[in-house]
Amino acid sequence: MKKLINLPEQVVEDMLEGMVAAYPEYIRLVPELNIVVRKDAPMKGQVGLVSGGGSGHEPTHGGFVGKGMLTAACAGDVFTSPTPDQILAAIKEVDGGAGVLLVVKNYTGDIMNFEMAAELAEAEGIETASVVVNDDVAVEDSLYTQGRRGIAGTVFVHKIAGAKAQAGGTLDEVKEVAEKVIANVRSMGMALTPCIVPAAGKPTFTLAEDEIEIGMGIHGEPGTHREKIRTADEITEHLTKKVLEDLPFAEGDEVAVMINGLGATPLMELFVINKKVAKMLGERKISVVRTYVGEYMTSLEMAGASVTLLKLDQELKELLAAPADTPGFKQF
Amino acid sequence: MGLTVSELTDMIQAVGKVIEDNKAFLTELDSAIGDADHGINMAKGFHAVKEKLPTLADADAGTVLKTVGMTLVSTVGGASGPLYGTAFLRAGMKIGNKEELLAVDLDLGLVAALEGIKQRGRAEPGDKTIVDALQPAVMALKESLNAGKTATEALGAAVTAAEDGVEYTKGIIARKGRASYLGERSLGHQDPGATSTYLMLRTMQEFLARRT
What we know:
The complex is a heterodimer.
Chain A: H1 11-22, E1 27-30, E2 35-38, E3 48-55, E4 72-78, H2 84-94, E5 100-105, H3 108-123, E6 128-133, H4 154-166, H5 171-184, E7 185-191, E8 211-214, E9 225-228, H6 232-246, E10 254-261, H7 267-283, E11 287-294, E12 304-311, H8 314-321, E13 324-325, E14 330-331
Parallel strand pairs in A: 3-4, 3-5, 5-6, 10-11
Antiparallel strand pairs in A: 1-2, 2-4, 7-8, 7-12, 8-9, 10-12, 13-14
Helix pairs in contact in A: 2-3, 4-5, 6-7
Chain B: E1 3-4, H1 5-21, H2 23-33, H3 38-52, H4 61-75, H5 80-95, E2 100-101, H6 103-121, H7 131-146, H8 151-169, H9 192-211
Antiparallel strand pairs in B: 1-2
Helix pairs in contact in B: 1-2, 1-3, 1-9, 2-3, 2-9, 3-4, 4-5, 5-6, 6-7, 7-8, 7-9, 8-9
């Protein structure tokens, strides 16, 4: 393992301190608890938006704390859910009297920890609501499994629910619009190389030199299958088709596109992917309202990318277009 | 069996040591079907427990167990934190302010732990989780106690049942947790959570056996 870290056990703390040192005008850190909080929180009368999850996905989630997006983010250890006491502390930091929405990605650990935190908050008289993001179409959705994972589409939930909260929406309204995003967002990713969890010191899986994993999760969970590397167009076509067929997206739809790099993918390659996605959408007469290309939800040093499509209606379009000013997502 | 609070504390320390000793093994199991952190996170949690226990010298058994639960919940993270944390919390709540634990308390505590884990994880037997080791263990313990066996003997039966449960998880498809994404590819691998449960029960049994 070759990484720019000090101690594996200390990497999350070191990162958060560095993040806050870089953006003191946006965020502050709750010491010991690894919570990144919007500098001016709590905002009186405004719904707080708390998300979080394992670290290693930066700029998710701490990088999206700021005006028009998250009010606080709880950073767990690398790829490990934050704990209930930590989430509870974040809820208290952001509660401005209008309640707090918890945005949870659909992983067993995250669900249980956020659920325990919500119970503890309720016991303390703070109103919370939760939404669970599950946009990854690579995973079979079934009553008998954990269900689909939450991946890059989560960033659209942060953006749009954040805009609604910023505009003064009630807890019910913010929750409702977050659920609308979840119902209309779909993603799928692939990996060229694995990633190494610092504390583990070695890759969680291996891929041959000419092999890729289709449908790879953001923690290195297996995808649908492995295959030989093909051209960017062929791979993009496969991912995008799966995404399109799932909702399904249809002629006349208006969408937002996110081409997300997993950590070690050059922007050059992400734009190559976007060229193909744009072409495919054009052929299907689906119009692209906004496109985001870059690193939004990474997986340490994994090389690979995901394609996310969000179907927009007038409300989602307006909220997506609203300004956001955070370290990792700026829109004016 | 007459386990004092101080012995209970020693037993929990012994469990923590075994988890620490098996950190790499549990992580290895988790990397096959999960996200390669089970051993690391559990060891971190029990390390925090080890630091915490000496501050509880005058506490009753329930308080010790509840404190272990809260410590695990706030340090382990992932799914194991809330699951094992809830298990210790529920056991502590059930056992209450006792100064000495009897065989019946072992039974009560483990039943409460099992119910807590099933509720928190919404898991049932056959999902390839902790429950596949813990539920048969709890049943075997109960059966042995009802048949008039000693706590050590009954816990021995529980350990055997848990070991069989771990073996059983190799042949089933995961329906909970990250392993569920694998579908049939989870076949052939034993569940890390069931394995850590087995290791804990075995350590408890060995502790009791050493004592008697």
